[in-house]
């Protein structure tokens, strides 16, 4: 009985399907597609493009500048100083305690003939004696003196300052949080092709120590600062400067990884116990803020402001909300050496510093002039003295030393 019913059902479906297809063809001249057929619909159509091989993963892209070229000879830079990523934000006196990554040259493999130590590419082998370092310093002074030539007169200096004004030219180099970088030296020489002087705008953390910025600019670029107003500088190239005889400056292809330095904030402050340190940190965060720092602002008056505050207060708090963490940490390290003071905490985007138990204020005033005069300035600068303001005697008599 069941078999007969199943046969009737199959016959009715086939007849209806045939009747349906014939009626469509007779009335509309339409032939149903094979997908309507139950038999063809259940079967999967064959793949016209069978896979004959598996797809291989492409290798990671490497720029041609990062690949070693056996036919290219390494550049021999004749710059008489150690090549660093930043000349103002890194000091040769501070040694790191470790490296975050293996040593690799940021100039590329086989680009220069100097060895990258993870921090710098030294011009002289560190194992050599002091005589080699003295020769290198003498060579640097000789090169700078030969390029500068005869000192500018007051009329020539004023004319160059007017040519580099904002109303006359838009040509400007911005010096940011990394300070005077190695590649910035190449930008300065490229601007010196078009004009005798270039305007440099300093912003951010390096402006806390403008004397160091000015000294490093004159020392590394072999130029001379002829005007300074706040964070704006005008760097003169020299009378005997020739663009075709500029020094060979190899470019850094990428920023090297920063090494590991000792912690700025320690468990206990020097001379205090753990309980006294905890109490001082709570007290420091409750002290009214001395000032609030703007992002990428000018911090040239911060050091004398803190020195004056230490005359009446023991703890000073600086509000750094909006600044990046690495920026106010670098600023705290500068203040520790410039004021000098003890770092208490960096919590809640604040810099809290302590003057210490035996605090003695420096003699003389600590106010810096916003605009400095460069009249009758000396022609030779001392590149090793970072605390002097561009080695101008008249400026030193008008403004106090930040260090």
UniProtKB/TrEMBL annotation:
Q: Report whether Repeat shows up as a keyword of the record.
A: yes
Bias-annotated ranges (Basic and acidic residues): 382-403
Q: Where is this region: Disordered?
A: 31-76, 375-403
The segment(s) forming the CRM domain are 150-248, 270-366
**Molecular functions per Gene Ontology:** RNA binding
A GO BP term here is: Group II intron splicing
Lineage of producing organism: Eukaryota, Viridiplantae, Streptophyta, Embryophyta, Tracheophyta
Question: GO cellular component annotations, sorted alphabetically?
Answer: ribonucleoprotein complex
What organism does the UniProt record list as the source? Artemisia annua (Sweet wormwood)
Keyword Ribonucleoprotein applies: yes
Q: What is this protein called?
A: RNA-binding CRS1 / YhbY (CRM) domain-containing protein
**What's in the keyword line of the UniProt record?**
mRNA processing, mRNA splicing, Repeat, Ribonucleoprotein, RNA-binding, Transit peptide
InterPro entries reported in the protein's UniProt record: CAF1P_plant (IPR044599), RNA-binding_CRM (IPR001890), YhbY-like_sf (IPR035920)
């Amino acid at each position: 009985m069941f078999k007969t019913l199943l046969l009737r059902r199959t016959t009715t479906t086939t007849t209806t399907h045939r009747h349906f297809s014939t009626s469509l063809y007779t009335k509309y001249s339409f032939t149903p597609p094979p997908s309507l057929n139950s038999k063809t619909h259940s079967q999967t159509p064959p793949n016209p493009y069978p896979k004959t091989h598996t797809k291989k993963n492409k290798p990671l892209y490497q720029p041609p500048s990062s690949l070693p070229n056996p036919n290219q000879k390494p550049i021999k830079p004749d710059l008489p100083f150690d090549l660093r990523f930043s000349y103002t934000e890194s000091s040769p006196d501070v040694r790191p305690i470790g490296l975050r990554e293996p040593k690799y040259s940021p100039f590329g493999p086989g680009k220069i003939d100097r060895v990258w130590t993870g921090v710098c590419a030294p011009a002289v082998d560190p194992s050599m004696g002091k005589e080699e370092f003295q020769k290198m310093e003498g060579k640097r002074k000789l090169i700078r003196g030969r390029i500068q030539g005869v000192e500018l007169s007051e009329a020539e200096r004023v004319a160059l300052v007017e040519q580099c004004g904002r109303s006359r030219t838009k040509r400007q180099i911005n010096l940011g949080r990394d300070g005077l970088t190695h590649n910035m030296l190449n930008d300065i020489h490229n601007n010196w092709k078009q004009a005798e002087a270039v305007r440099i705008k300093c912003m951010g953390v390096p402006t806390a120590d403008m004397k160091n910025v000015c000294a490093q600019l004159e020392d590394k670029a072999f130029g001379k600062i002829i005007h300074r107003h706040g964070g704006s500088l005008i760097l003169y190239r020299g009378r005997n400067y020739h663009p075709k005889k500029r020094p060979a400056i190899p470019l850094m292809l990428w920023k090297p990884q920063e090494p590991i330095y000792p912690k700025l904030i320690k468990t206990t402050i020097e001379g205090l116990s753990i309980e006294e340190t905890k109490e001082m940190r709570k007290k420091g965060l409750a002290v009214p803020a001395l000032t609030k720092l703007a992002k990428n602002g000018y911090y040239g008056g911060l050091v004398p402001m803190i020195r004056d505050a230490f005359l009446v207060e023991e703890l000073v708090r600086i509000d750094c909300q909006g600044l990046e963490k690495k920026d106010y940490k670098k600023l705290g390290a500068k203040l520790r050496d410039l004021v000098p003071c003890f770092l208490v905490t960096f919590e809640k985007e604040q810099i809290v510093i302590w003057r210490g138990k035996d605090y003695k204020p420096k003699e003389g005033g600590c106010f810096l002039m916003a605009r400095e005069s460069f009249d009758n300035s000396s022609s030779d600068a001392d590149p090793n003295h970072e605390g002097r303001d561009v080695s101008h005697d008249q400026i030193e008599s008008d403004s106090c030393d930040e260090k």
